[in-house]
Amino acid sequence: MKRVAVILLSVAALASAAQHQHQRHHHVAKRDPTPVEVISVPGPTVIVYELNGRFISEGEVREGLANGTLVLAQNGQLSSAPSSTFVAPETQAAYVAPPPPSPTSEYVAPVTTSESTPEAAPMTASSSSEYVAPAPTSSSSEYVAPSPSPSAPAPPANKGGNDNGPSVGSSGGSGVDQDFPDGQLDCSHFPSDYGAVNVHWTGLGGWTGVQTPETTNAGFANILTAIHGGGCTEGSYCSYACPAGYQKAQWPTTQGATGQSVGGILCQGGKLHLTNTAMSSKLCMPGTSKVDVQVQNKLSSNAAVCRTDYPGTEGETVPLDTQPGQSYPLTCPDADRYYNWKGGKTSAQYYVNPAGVSVSDACQWGSPGNPWGNYAPLNLGVGYSGGRAWLSIFQNAPTTDAKLDFSVEIVGDNVSGKCKYSNGQYCGDAGCSSSTGCTVSVASGTATFVFS
Q1: At a CB cut-off of 8 Å and minimum separation 6, what does 63 contact?
Q2: Which residues pair with 427 in a beta bridge?
Q3: Which of 85, 95, 115 is nearest to 8 (CA)?
Q4: 127 within some domain
Q5: pLDDT tens sequence across 78-116
Q6: Domain count within the chain
């Protein structure tokens, strides 16, 4: 996991965030006739707010910025004002992963692990060609995209059924298959007419994340991450969600000097520019066509599934709001045609939230008191490589030991192996465990994550 430390000064109202990184790596418990394999995972980013050496909540930050009693430091140096009335709540521990696995040239399936280690300095990744996937962390991994409908203010955070904002399903942004007019749209224009899905609850004008880096010979450094109330501004990379079955196709070739990921299109000269024309001339692209991966909701209420915005801020802000009795495509990245992290191939990771949690509560940073957002109980790993899709179900450990309130099972005619979560147990070919997840593979046809 990576922490973005936002240092606060008591007085006026402006925001910047210096990014720091922690990475984590997990061992895979693979339930398949092939040998056990390993995944290396760059963790997501957690934004914390610091005032006078102590951490305060985002709500207090917003209030302070609004009433003029707080300002974010521009130079990374902390100073305080005696007039500050903010009292820091208890500091929240960040998660950093176990040591990196040994190098391998094999594709490895999505993560299934419950190991944790104390917070430590950032770890370097192996320089091999191993498969790399964004894995569960104390704040997130990737998600799947929405289908817009009438926009409305985000409801208060509670466990209360469907979201009142845009419907998030299989249809998503219009024009998803149209070429993007590179350098023609104003940065103030959110490109929903070219497939991007407006995620209004982030408070970033529909964007899932906005990053403003400095460029050095080694890569991007001092990456500033916009907070609620920000937008796509000059020099920023502006990330977005795509409809279900699609994923973001734009990210710059230059990446973080110390392993941070940056994603989205670039605001330059007041216009929006593509950043990865070698990959696509569009904003969104489908996953693999070799295997059809679906999610089916057999519950009596919605169940929000949230993918990590990766590469990018790595927050769980890319949403899919599954509805009772409905099935949706779940984007399965082809590792050969997707983001590479330090030479390693990557997959998608999804957070599965308890039944009835609104998508606007589920698909953003959460808090330890509620089992949703980055504290959702369960993760799905999805990726295609070596002629097979690799699908897994695993506990969101060590972030939380909360148990999901419904069952999840991978089914399909050509699925190799068994994988099911039910009543706190993860059951695969080798038996059941309360902590170790399970993985299956499928070479063709359809595989479905069934919620019941």
Answers
A1: none
A2: 420, 432
A3: 85
A4: no
A5: 333 333 333 333 333 333 333 333 333 334 344 433 333
A6: 2
Of 38, 72, 106, the last residue of a domain is 72
Q: Tokens 């059951």 label which residue? A: 427
Looking at residue 354, the DSSP 8-state letter turns out to be P
Residue 423, helix vs strand vs coil: coil
Q: Which of 44, 72, 100 is the last residue of a domain?
A: 72
Check residue 388 and give its pLDDT. Answer: 97
Residues in Cβ contact with 377 at an 8 Å cutoff, skipping those fewer than 6 apart: 352, 354, 371, 395, 396, 400, 402, 403, 404
Q: Would you say how long the chain is, in residues?
A: 452
CATH number of the domain residue 364 falls in: 2.60.110.10
| Cα dihedral 367, 371, 372, 375 in deg (nearest 10) | 60
pLDDT given at position 173: 72
Residue 409 lies in a domain: yes
Residue 119 within any structural domain of the chain: no
- For 232-245, write each residue's pLDDT tens digit: 999 999 999 999 99
3-class DSSP state of 432? strand
CB-facing half-sphere around the CA of 421: CA atoms within 13 A? 27
Distance of alpha carbon 412 from alpha carbon 160, whole angstroms: 32
Domain with 15, as residue range(s), is: 2-72
Identify the three-state secondary structure at position 132: strand
- Give, in order, the Cα–Cα distances in Å from 147 to each of 113, 176, 234, 324, 363: 32, 11, 28, 16, 14
Phi, psi (degrees; rounded to nearest 5) at 62: -60, -40
pTM equals 0.69
Query: How confident is the model over 187-223, as pLDDT tens digits?
Result: 999 999 999 999 999 999 999 999 999 999 999 999 9
Contact 233, 241 (CB under 8 A): no
State how far the Cα of 316 lies from the Cα of 308, in Å rounded to an integer.
4
Residue listed under structure tokens 């802000």:
317
How many whole angstroms separate alpha carbon 448 and alpha carbon 412? Answer: 6
Tens-digit pLDDT profile for residues 136-177: 333 333 333 333 333 333 333 333 344 434 445 433 478 999
173, 199 in Cβ contact below 8 A? Answer: no
- Does the residue 356 lie in any domain? yes
CA 298 to each of CA 102, 246, 414: distance values in angstroms, whole numbers, following the listed order? 40, 23, 21
